Structure formats: structure tokens, C-alpha cells
Amino acid sequence: MHPAPSIIAFSTFSGLGLGLLFWLGIDPTAPTGWVAFAFFAIAYALAVGGLISSTFHLGRPERAIKAFTQWQTSWLSREAWCAVAALVTMGIYAFLLVFFDTQVSILGWIGAAFALATVYTTSMIYAQLKTVPRWNTALTSALFIALSLAGGALLSGRVTYGLILLLVAGGLQAIWWKTGDTRFKQSGTDLKTATGLGRIGEVRAFEPPHTGTNYLLNEMVYTVGRKHAQKLRMISLVLMLVLPVILLLLPFPHIFGLLAVLSHIAGVLVSRWLFFAEAEHVVGLYYGMR
Amino acid sequence: MTQLPEKTERKMGLVIDLDTCVGCHACVVSCKGWNTENYGAPLSDQKPYGADPSGTFLNRVHSYEVQPESGPAQLIHFPKSCLHCEDAPCVTVCPTGASYKRTEDGIVLVNEKDCIGCGLCAWACPYGARELDKAEGVMKKCTLCVDRIYNENLPEVDRVPACVRTCPSNARHFGDLGDPDSAVSQLVAERSGMDLMPEQGTKPVNKYLPPRPKDRLNEEIDILAPLLAPVVEEPKGFLGWLDKTLEKL
Known about the structure:
The complex is a heterodimer. Chain A contains 10 helices and 1 strand. By secondary structure, chain A is mainly α. Chain A has one domain (5-56, 65-187, 205-287): Formate dehydrogenase/DMSO reductase domain (Formate dehydrogenase/DMSO reductase fold, Up-down Bundle), CATH 1.20.1630.10. Chain B has one domain (12-209): Alpha-Beta Plaits. Chain B is of the alpha+beta class. Strand 1 (202-207) of chain A pairs antiparallel with strand 4 (59-67) of chain B, so a sheet runs across the interface.
């Protein structure tokens, strides 16, 4: 799948922002005043910035509002609803904390639930697709939620939770990669079932429909950079997990905490790039490619 | 409405005969020709005369080589367009309701005024039947020529999809696959028509007729064949002399 920068940025940054909102929402002693303002400003910048960047890949962004209508069947529509519900609820919660030093815990809990639900709906947009076997697993949702919670814990300065969640997310990431490598084969879809010609013999794509490229190949048969996938996985894991853990365990938390966050974000960005670049859509079979 | 109808009154669709398709791409051209100037936005091309041309097509013809266990390889031309699936995954993922499946005839369509061009339906389709038009920013797909098949301004013979009307080898058939007595359903039954990627669970309406088995020369052609073996003819005259002379050298 084509790793569109707008989608990578969206899912990474909004995941982090929503993760931070989650921790702020369930915090029994949430910050107030200017400290709260700073935390919520970061969370909203990440979450809203990510959501806005997601509209950049639309062919007709001016009609984006219509995406709220089909929540009954569409995960993308459900994501839109959850995101708005999370941002509005947390907005009121933040407003009361910042300007009135008042914590309405119930609002925080509801907002936190919607924040997590938003990350879940985002993950389901990918995990629901049978056409992309690498994504088509509940592990995808687990990974997205774990990364969001780990990033949010780091951003909100929760060292212990951060460490535990980093390890969980890193483990899930490793399992997701490992099992993902064989999932296409396990899906049972190959050129034989795609053409129905397998009953005659071995099928080989002889000639594509045209000499040039097309939307399908650009969007769903992205093969550039896969050869470095193994190295990039290591780089991603080191940046996302190993470095932040070391930095958090060192005895100078503040500046190192910031570095841990930046390193983690860089690692998640690499992981998200691989998430798309490595994913193989079954339509590639028709073109003799993966 | 992105909820799929539980059942459609009819299941209009295509039956494509892989045995007779000659791979001429006439269906591709007629499809583009009709659909670029009728239903919805035109099918744009990008740099059509440049070094890297591309464009939107609703129907494309692939070619595959199939190698049986014995005997020569076969070349099979393979037209592919929307299969108007009963369980169309492209419809349910649509966030705006632009994609829908019609209850009356099962045709899957895009209401282009509602399409935001997110591309998720193209991701959900295993067959590559949907293409986002670069100029218009909306999703394009086969409409089964919905503006031809019911069009009373056209002579009756033309009230079929453009690809079917154009096919010079009669490899494309159009009809109601929900009616077991229809000509297309009987064709499918007779020739064991098949689904593409059945394991994806999309229940395609369009069916493909597999190529018929090829004729094979039997090893023993005729019991009298040995008796009919050609007699070796020795060259005579000048050629005979030349042959002998060259042999001696």
C-alpha cells in the first residue's frame, strides 16, 4: 500500500494526542491552570493536527462533513464520530480545569473512553480489510492502542506506566511483524483463485492491461523500499522502544524525558511507514506483483 | 446508504467467456468511450501523450499464461471490471453513503456528489474494480452502463452494456443472474461458470466461464498409421548425383 505522508502523520500524531488525552482524562489529580493548558494544548495540537492532515489525501476534502453519515456500517464514519465526541468532551473537561480549577472526573472518564475508541476505530479501518491480509487481524487494533497509550504515558510524564506500555507495545509490534510476514500466504488468495485458472495449471501474469501505471498500482502495489524492511524494523524498534526505555531509566528525567518522547515518535513514524509500505493488497496478484 | 440490501429483486451482471475472448481490448475502448461522456464525471487521462501516460478505466484486460502439467502453455485473455458483488465490501466501508447497491437490480453505483475521494472502497475491493479519477477526485467504477440498459431512446439491440455490445467474439454476456432460467444463468450452469477469489467472501454476481479443454493429439493416431508411413524418397537425376558426390567428399 502507498505510504501517504498525510496518513502516516495522521495516525501517528493523532494516536499520540489521543493517548495523552486518555491519561489526562483518567488522572485522579489532573493538572489545573497553566500546566493543564500546556498539556491540553499539546494533546489537541497532536490530535487535531493529525485529523486535519488526514483530510489532505481526500479527493474532495470540501465534502468531508458527509463522512459522519454512515456510522452504521463504516469504520471511517465511526472514527469521525468518536474523534469529535472525544475532542468535545475533553474540551469541556479541559476548559473547566484550566479556567475554573475544577475537575469533573466523569467528563474525563467519558472523554478518555472516546479517545481510546477513536484509536480503535482508526485501527479497524485497516484491520477490517480482508484485501490486505497483513492488516486483517485483531493484533492491528491491539498494536495501535498500545502505541497510543505508551506515547500518551510518555507525553504525560508517567514513567512507570510508560515503561510497561513501551514494552507491551514493542512486543506487540514484534509479533505483528513476525505473524504478518506469513499472513498473505495463509489468506489462501493467490493468482490461481484470483483468475480461477488454477484448475488448468500454473498461472503466470503474462501481459498487464497497459504499458503504463495506473491508480491501482500507485495506490495498492507499492513495492519501493521493501528490501530495507528488516533494517527499518530494527531502527523502528530501537527508536520506539530501546532508546526511550534507556533514557527513562537514567536518573535525569526532564531533558531525557523529552528525548525519550522524540525518539519514540520517530520510531512510531518509521513503524507506520512500514505498516503501509510492507502491506500487500491482493489486487497486486492480477498484475503479477505483490 | 451503505447498508447492503438483504436481497435484490434481480442480479444484473456479466458473464465473461475466457474461452472465446481474443484479448482485442475493444471492450476497454468502448467502455471508456461511452462512460467518459455519459453517467457522472468523465474518465480523465493524465499526460496521455507524455512519457508516463495513465488514466481512469472501468474495464481492463489482463493476459495470463497457464502451464498445464503436460502439453503447451495456454494464453488466456482476462477482462476485468466490477463484479457487482452481493456482499460488496466497497459499499459498507464508505463513510458518506456515496457507494450503494441498488435493491431493484443489484448494480453497485457511486453517487459522485457525495463521494469525498477517500479511496477506502478501492482498498476494500479485492478485484481492483474501482479507480479514483485524478482530475475529478471522485471514485469511478463500472455502472453496468445503467444509462444504456434502461434507455428507451436507444434501439433495443443497444440496451446492453457498451462492452457487451462491442465484443467482436461474443465473449461477454449480459443478463439477470438471479433468474435461473435466464440465458446467462443457463450459460453459467452449462459451462460451470466460476467466481473470482471466492475465499474473499464477496459473492460476485459476474461469472467467468473457464476455457474449454484444448484438443490434444493422441499418441496413437490411427492403427493403420504405420502402414501409411511416408516412403523415403531417394533423390534421382541431377540431385541424386549431387547427393552422392557430396557424400563422397
